[in-house]
Specification:
A hairpin with a 7-residue loop joins strand 1 and strand 2. The chain is elongated and about 55 Å long. The protein is mostly helical and 70 residues long. The protein contains three helices and two strands. Strands 1-2 form a two-stranded antiparallel sheet.
Length: 70
Amino acid sequence: MKWVYNAKESCGFKWNNIEELVSLTENLVKNPDRINELRKNTVLRSELYTKQAFEKSFKAILANNVLEKI
């Protein structure tokens, strides 16, 4: 069982079985501050998957491929 915790990934849990999932969920229910942290970081991380973020990454890939062919 692992509480994923760093600036880029503190938006979820990694669990290996149902017992760990239940334990982590119970821990969240008992710790509203952790729920709020999880909620905030989940919203921040979701920005990695916006249309704008995709377009920026895609354009960078295309630019790199064009430069490699020159």
